[in-house]
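Record filed here:
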Amino acid sequence: MRVAIIAAPYPLTEIPSPPLGITYVAAAFIAAGAEVKIFDYIVSGYSKEKLANQLADFQPDAVGIGSVTMNFYEAQRILQDVKSVDQEIITMMGGPHVSFCARQTLKQYPEIDLIFSGEAEDAIREITPALSDKKQWRNICGIASRQNGEIIDNGKRGFIADVDNIPLPARNLLPVSRYRALGFPVSIITGRGCPNACIFCVGRKMVGSKIRRRKAQNVLDEIEQIIKLGFERINIADDLFATDKERVDAICKGIMARGLRFSWSAFARVDTVGQEMLEIMAQAGCDSVSFGVETGNPEILKTIKKGINLEQVRKAVQMCKQAGMIAHASFIVGLPGETKETLAQTEEFAKSLGIVYGYHFLAPFPGTTVREKVQKYDLQILTDDWAKYDANDAIVRTAAVSPEEMREFVARFDKEIDDDWQRQLRGYQMGTNTPLENIQVEGHWCLQLSYQILKNDLIEKYGFIKSNIFQGSDEKALQELCDRITAATNTDSAIVKKTISDYARKGYLKITNHNGDCICSWPE
């Protein structure tokens, strides 16, 4: 059984990690005996022609794709393309979006044959040997499927009790060099389950209310795997990492005992961190912690069932500072009960913390309490266009605040950041910046160029250098590649040279002599 797993296109401006869910799914299919490949369209361009060529090369029996709400349409259209290439390929989808609207999705999108709901590993283990026999699908919990025009939902299955038995993510199937060139941190989760009931989050419904922690040894093994792939920064993405002091202590001491050298960050709740814990995290290489604060208004905190108070936020931030770590806070605009006064409270509170912070707009995703019971709250959802569910625009209103007023509030904050950025750009041109500010400016330009190189497959397009130009010289080949990318992107040649030179120096780019010609490519 051959299974292709697709990482659906996702905006690079959203700073995506190498896709964690996709690599867990790939590992589960491998453990079930399938031959698996990942087609990644996050750090490369997508076209139907490219898909058709990849399908022809691999000839999969089934194609699976994951999506969140904001890129559901792109994922669905790719499966539509799969069916147009070969109607016999079984198409599958999973992820938090379709987990909560499986029947509706299958009814509306005939190109999708099967949907995994919630945790998929056990369902994958059962269905892999039965993929070619749709009659057996009826007996497998955790999936919904279309059979002979009939939609069959087998219901949810129990959560996996021992998460240490879940195969480690198959990140080696990803285009690792591309992700390393992008430079974003690799996300890991150290456990599943969430006992909290925040009304804007699908976490508790997706992974259950009981915390299922991985053993420290298991987490450390995964960290070691990631480092061996060449990644240098990791982010611990589960909010409940810091809820077990002894396990945090064991993981941090294990990092140091194994001599694992990397920088890392973590998400955490403000009501779970302590000074001693943060100190040992810092010793083990953690340099920043992100807290979801959501609002500066105590009543809204109660409404959204966040389970924290503002004093806990202040204490957590102060403890991070004392440990020598960066603290970051995120806030949501447009929560139920939002008024101009509550927005002002949030702004005042955020500024008072003296740390880096940012705003997102409320996105009432399928499966969230705020969406399913919206009539209970001071909230109106204005659209079901899933492409707008990226938390970057106002798609709700409250009785006191319109979408336009929400946008204006965030725009004022964004303008402050942009004004400072424009100052740095002027300083770069005038030579008045600090060395650090110049590094930040050049780093930004290099990152923007990397976006273009990756999403437009520019290395593939321009990486073949004829022998009369190559002349056996890697330096000449790289210069020719730089010249071509400079012309294609209209980017300053110095930035192109710096970016491409960094790729080559760090091993992200491979230079191969082929019959006298040169091929610049991403290493396998």
Observations:
- The mean pLDDT is 96.
